[in-house]
# Entry
Amino acid sequence: MPNNMETPTAAFWKRKLAAFLHDPPEKAFDYGPHHVERARIYAQNLGLDLDEWLRGNDKADWSAAAADRFLFPSSVPLGGEPAFQHPLSPSGAGPLLTRTDFPDQTTTEEIVSNVLPTLNAGGEETFLRVWRRWLQSVVENGAEKRGAEWIGLLPADTRIPDATIWHHTAITSAVEATRGDDGQLHPAFLLVQV
# Structure
């Protein structure tokens, strides 16, 4: 096989990693072009061209968003700051976390940026390291920064913050893995409720 051709297996792991990196952990701070640029930087740090994955692959992102976000009627006014409250906490106890508990955007970007390149090992191992260790490494390496322990709870969507960005990107990567030879996604979802 020529050197410039990748194996189907290598391409698979690159697609999964690109899907995992398509939204940066700090997306909740900026839903504009800045978050897309941050995602590109993270992908470049691991030798990926995120734009290559983004072209025509948004269905994995949309499917993941539909799978991990609560359906909320548009007639219900949201109002106020997003608040995080554990569903088992006593009513009236107030939010578990508020915006000021998290580090600011610059600090979050710094912590996340410093950790990611250390996880690069090439191929499948890079995906596995990023998927399993990025969040943990962010929290451990940012320990001296105020609020770093809460980076793992940054939401995927600030309008209805019911799922973390880490969960969303993991679901997007899982959905991307169902892409068949026809270029289409073939996911099957199993819902278990206790």
Notes: The mean pLDDT is 82.
